[in-house]
Write a structure and sequence with these properties.
single chain, mainly alpha, two-stranded antiparallel ribbon, 9 helices, 2 strands
C-alpha cells in the first residue's frame, strides 16, 4: 500500500514537470517542490535504507524531475527564483543530480538516463547550460559528457545496453537537444 502512495506522488511530480511556466500556478508548484527538498539537495520520497532499484526509482528519479523544474523556473523566472527559492537550493539540486550520472539501476540504467535527459531537455536544459553553465560546472559537464557519449554511440552504431536497443531514444535526445 505504501509503495502505491509513493508511486502516486512520483507520478504527480512527473506531471508537474510538464506544466507550462506560463501557468498561473507554476510559481506555487516551484514553492511546493522546494518544500520537498532536503538539506543535501535531494527530493527523496522515501527515507531510510532501500534496495537500489527502489532508491533510484523513488528518490533519484524524483530528484532529477524536481531539479528540472528548478531549471525551468530559474531559466524563465530568475529574479523570482533567487528571491523565493534561492540559488543555493538550485546548486544543491544540480550537484545531487550528478551523483549517478543520471543512470538508473541494473539493466534499466541507460533507460533512466535517457528518460531523465528528456525531462531536463523539455524543461529548458539547453538554454540553462548555455546561459548558466557556471552555476554548477559539474552538472553542466555531466550533461555535455552524456551527449558526447550518445554522439559516440551514433558514430559507432552502438545502441545496445543490457537487453535493449536504444537507437531511437538516443537519436531523439540528440535531436531534441539539437546536436
Amino acid at each position: 500500500m505504501k509503495e502505491r502512495k509513493y508511486e502516486m506522488m512520483k507520478r504527480s511530480i512527473e506531471s508537474l514537470s510538464k506544466m507550462s511556466r506560463r501557468n498561473i500556478n507554476f510559481k506555487d508548484v516551484v514553492i511546493l517542490i522546494s518544500n520537498l527538498q532536503k538539506e543535501d539537495g535531494t527530493f527523496d520520497l522515501i527515507s531510510g535504507t532501500l534496495p537500489n532499484d527502489l532508491k533510484v526509482y523513488f528518490n533519484e528519479e524524483t530528484t532529477y524531475i524536481c531539479t528540472s523544474i528548478y531549471i525551468k523556473a530559474y531559466l524563465y523566472e530568475k529574479e523570482w527564483f533567487e528571491e523565493n527559492i534561492g540559488l543555493n537550493s538550485l546548486r544543491l539540486a544540480l550537484e545531487e543530480s550528478t551523483r549517478y550520472n543520471l543512470f538508473g539501476h541494473g539493466y534499466e540504467a541507460l533507460d533512466t538516463q535517457i528518460k531523465s535527459m528528456n525531462i531536463f531537455i523539455k524543461n529548458g536544459l539547453k538554454g540553462f547550460i548555455r546561459n548558466y553553465f557556471d552555476i554548477n560546472n559539474k552538472f553542466s559537464e555531466m550533461i555535455i559528457s552524456i551527449l558526447n557519449d550518445y554522439k559516440k554511440r551514433v558514430d559507432e552504431n552502438n545502441y545496445k545496453y543490457g537487453f535493449s536497443n536504444y537507437e531511437v531514444e538516443i537519436k531523439k535526445v540528440l535531436r531534441e537537444y539539437e546536436i
